[in-house]
Each structure stands twice: as C-alpha cells, then as structure tokens.
Amino acid sequence: MKIGSGEAHAERYFTEVRQVADRIDYAMIERLADGLADLRARSGRLFLLGVGGSAANCSHAANDFRKLCAIEAYTPLDNVSELTARINDDGWEGVFADWLVVSRAGDNDAVLVLSVGGGDVEHNVSVNLVRALDEAKRRGVRIYGIVGRQGGYTKQVGDIVVVIPTVNVDHVTPHTEAFHAVVWHCLVSHPKLQLVGTKWERIAKT
C-alpha cells in the first residue's frame, strides 16, 4: 500500500495492533519484571537508552519507574546540555557509553534499551547504542531491552529482551514505539514492581 492512500487505514492499523498484542512474548515480559524487581532489591540503578522517538519514551519510562516503582532510574536524554556537549565535543557514537562511564555503572546496575532496531553497526543505525552496550558488557551491567524487528545488537548481547513482533514491515516503527509504552506500562503496573498507585486509580477507589 502506498503512503498517502489512507482508505480504511485506521481499521487495518488497529487490526495490526491486535496482532502485535496477541503475538508478543508475555513470558519474556514476566522475566523482565523479575529482573527489575531484583534490580530494586539490590539497590541497583536503571539507565534507559534510546534515540529519536524512543528517546522521548525513555524520559517518560524513567519517570514511571522512579515514581511508581521506586527504582532509581535515569536517562541521559533528560540532560540536553550534557548530551549535546558530548555530541559536539566527542561525537555521536560514544555519547551513551561515555555517560555510563561517568555514571560509574557497574554490576549492580542495568540498562534498558528502547529502540526500533536495537542498534546495527552494519547499517550504521543507532551505533551509539551498540557502543553503550559494549561498555555495559565490559562493566558487568545487565542488559534489558524492548525492541523491534529482529532485535538488533540489543537482542544479540542482552540478558532479557522483549521483541515487538513485526506484523507489517511498513509499520515497524510506529508499532514498536507505541508498544514500548504498552510494555513499560505493563511493567510499572505489575504487582511485583508497583509500589505507588496511579492518581486516577486512587481517586476511583475513594
């Protein structure tokens, strides 16, 4: 279907959304919940990494993990001054790896990658994620991910990685970035993780 031929697009799109939801690996999401619960129990930190639309998702997710689950979560995307200074002075590819170094990330901590492709050196896509994951591996940091396509480098080296199923190659990016939010909201509302109720749910109960 050509871009711009929008007849019945909404119906087709939401049919695909249902297909993604039906095919996603629920057991892997449960494993990720367990991993994050263990992270909190050992007072580890969670570093969220992503680019483009996924960068905005990282910021939102860091808020939810901190506020609702009491997990010490950070993303370099929230500090635009440091981010752009590192890009300007040292280059794009090492920006996240260098940030992990300064953060003294260690074997008590974890990174959570939100990405469409998961990092791919061969195609020169999100190479900064690849460099960050290499640094994380060197430091013994656990690697988690919510990614699309075949999972890329994140899936290759990660410990627990949820791959958003591809149901239409023309909609990989919108489905993946949308399901980032579906999966992390599943996690932050998980009984193993959520400690603080969300506002409207608290209001409804009163």
Can you put this structure into words, describing what you see?
The chain is of the alpha/beta class and 206 residues long. It has one domain: Glucose-6-phosphate isomerase like protein, domain 1 (Rossmann fold, 3-Layer(aba) Sandwich), CATH 3.40.50.10490. It is 53% helix and 12% strand. It is built from 9 helices and 5 strands; from the N terminus they run H-H-E-H-E-H-H-E-H-E-H-E-H-H. The protein has helices at 9-23, 26-41, 53-69, 80-90, 95-102, 127-139, 152-157, 172-188, 199-205, and strands spanning 45-49, 72-74, 110-115, 142-147, 160-163. Strand 3, helix 6 (127-139) and strand 4 form a beta-alpha-beta unit. Helix 3 packs parallel to helix 8 (172-188) and helix 5 (95-102) packs parallel to helix 6. The mean pLDDT is 95.
Question: Would you kindly provide a brief summary of this structure?
Answer:
The chain is an alpha/beta fold and 206 residues long. The protein has helices at residues 9-23, 26-41, 53-69, 80-90, 95-102, 127-139, 152-157, 172-188, 199-205; strands spanning 45-49, 72-74, 110-115, 142-147, 160-163.
